[in-house]
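Late entry, written up from scratch paper. The run itself happened at the end of the previous shift, but nothing got recorded in the book at the time, so transcribing now.
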Amino acid sequence: MAVLPKVNQLGFFEIRLESIGGLGANLAGKMLAEAGIIGAGMDGVSFSSYGSEKKGSPVKAHIRFCEMGTPIRSATPIEYPHVIGIFHEALLKSGGASGVLPGGIVLVNSARAASQIAQEADLSGCTVAVLDATRIALEEKNKVNMAMLGGLFRLCHFLDPEFMKDVIAKSLGKKYPQAVEQAVRVFERGYTEIETLEIPTADKVPAAVIPAPVLGYLNQPLGGMVVTPGSSLLKDLSVSRSGMLPAFDRATCIDCAQCDTACPDLCFVWEEQPDKRGRMQMMLKGIDYQYCKGCLKCVEACPTESLSRMLEEEGYAAAHQVKHRFDLIEV
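Output as recorded:
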């Protein structure tokens, strides 16, 4: 039986996976638990929380490991994990790394340096690991979750990576036998291509302390008003992108609007301008990436290849974004 590196007051080593629908965190949590309970001879429990099962919706997976004989009476969401796996780095903005215990580990799917991630998430007293799982998955034509599992196994030394390969073969073999070899290769790359950085403790509030809610019974808006509606100009679908976005070439665009017809989120910005003959026409200015979830339906619809799929780079969306007029209204 494997020995856990540390446990909390209830005797658990806890892992939380932060993700969005479509990246496979739910399945990754189940496979991770199986590798620990059956492969490493530990006891434990695993469950996930999510809303509607669609691409882009928030997903959390919770895994608890303990020594055999430890009472398992807790089925609450994990708030103070020893390890956090963040499948999409945009989730850092919404507190994806909150609650990590001092000396814990935060693994982020990102192409950026660990020092940048630590600074952005305001982390201290823990280990930050980065893995470009999206790039690996695209190169191998497989899923992000397999690469992230490889990184998690590298960080959790009590788990056996060889047993995990058997779990992958068993989980995918019946339904997707052609994907087993690719999934194992992605898992191995995730295991070897991870980079880690220990962040020293700073003179500030520890990372594990979650601040009190801003609203309470004394200052909550009357009637429980929704103060940040998701269907207004405050909506931001960028967290739903899983690594790809459309790139726009104005020079080859013929303003046919087929992209706008295919787009489910009204991402394209138009403006009335004179054409070469001086006639006023509606012309495509660009894409408002705030509302783009990366479905790439516009790329498929474009007849002139003015829209192409590209691997999202840090800062590209902000630099090339063309905002809708209602975004410019002061509220």
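The domain at 13-199 is CATH 3.40.920.10 (Pyruvate-ferredoxin Oxidoreductase; domain 3).
(Scratch paper discarded after transcription.)
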